[in-house]
Amino acid sequence: MLKKIKLIFKSKLILRFVFTLFIIFVFILGRSIQIPFLGPQIKKIFDDIYKTLLNSFQLINFDLKSLNLLSLSIYPYITVSIFIQLVQKLIPYLKEWREQGEIGQQKLNRLTRFLAILLAFFQSYLMINKYNIEFKDKIYISFFLATGTAISIWLSDLITAKGIGNGTSILIMVGMSNAVFTTFQKIFEFWPIKKIQFFSLFFLLLFILISTIIIYLAVLKIPIIYPNKQSQVENYIPLKINVPGVLPIILTSTLQAFFMFFINNISFFNKLSYKDKIIEFISMSNSLGIIFFVCLMIFFSFLTSFVIVNINDISEHLSKQDAYIENCRPGKQTTEKISYDFFRITLIGVLFMVFLFILPLLISKFFNFTEFKIGGTGFLIIVGVSIETLQQISSTANKEDYARIF
């Protein structure tokens, strides 16, 4: 451990770490920049607007103090990314770009960024269109908030390219930081008057933290055999229990925010007599809404897991290496064996994620603790981003150490 810490301080990694902290500081600073040159009447309606944003992003504990430059943050970009991923195979030129390798990926990235800024402008305009303010002010505010999304995307790219970790995930985690602080502040308020509840909550959160780390790092090892090799080193295929990490949560929460936003801001829905029931459903105020979003999370978990891990590629690679799994023939039988094992461990990860998803509801019911703002999914995001960042730090430090030796 001490050796790795020394490697980090000796290598250029410390500069990347400092750069990441600087970008996070800029992002936090951006969240305090108010929209300038507006009259007092317009500022009065901002409380209502930012409450709409808070309700829209409740699933992942999106937190705002007021409407500001980075209010929409990176979320329009995530929404567009989901859309692009879903329609890639349906639109011919997107399919061509996907097959063009790095050049095609650059084209897709540019399109995603352009559509994200366009969506941010459109969302901002819808958000303020229902208020009685001048058209030029509506355009100005929409442009300002869309610019904030463009800045968030740029900061995210800077972290990914020149810093440490995935920029999008880190900005989401930073956005949740105040919710984390508020939750623990409320828990410690139990100490003087409700010691049993305090210790119960404390040990429950500790158990969740430890189990989340275990699930995130757990790996199923499928032994493989090389008939021509006499090496005593064990060879195996490592399959993670939680392959997609926090991605299914981010996808589900972004879609929930997207639905909630448009229902609250499009006039068509105001004419519907059952609008309140739709809002209850999407905000998970009833059991049907909870079941729907749990099913959506399960769907995204399996979808992203089997997209990230290509079972056919693993099977083909084993055949080319003249390797096989014990009691399995190369080809179809090997593919079925890996698919079966991968499905089982993914199911464990999915069930744990569902437990984290409904955890705030359980805590609110049994502990009468409605201020539990972080949520179980928030735990997974924080732990996941932290572990991924630490793993990247470790691997980068090792690479630089090996490069120095050779």
UniProtKB/TrEMBL annotation:
Keywords: Cell membrane, Membrane, Protein transport, Translocation, Transmembrane, Transmembrane helix, Transport. It holds the Pfam family SecY. InterPro entries: SecY (IPR026593), SecY/SEC61-alpha (IPR002208), SecY_CS (IPR030659), SecY_dom_sf (IPR023201). The chain crosses the membrane at residues 13-33, 74-91, 111-128, 140-159, 201-226, 246-269, 290-311, 342-363. PROSITE patterns: SECY_2. The keyword Transmembrane applies. It is found in: Cell membrane; Membrane. GO terms for cellular component: plasma membrane. The central subunit of the protein translocation channel SecYEG. Consists of two halves formed by TMs 1-5 and 6-10. These two domains form a lateral gate at the front which open onto the bilayer between TMs 2 and 7, and are clamped together by SecE at the back. The channel is closed by both a pore ring composed of hydrophobic SecY resides and a short helix (helix 2A) on the extracellular side of the membrane which forms a plug. The plug probably moves laterally to allow the channel to open. The ring and the pore may move independently. This is Protein translocase subunit SecY. The gene is secY.
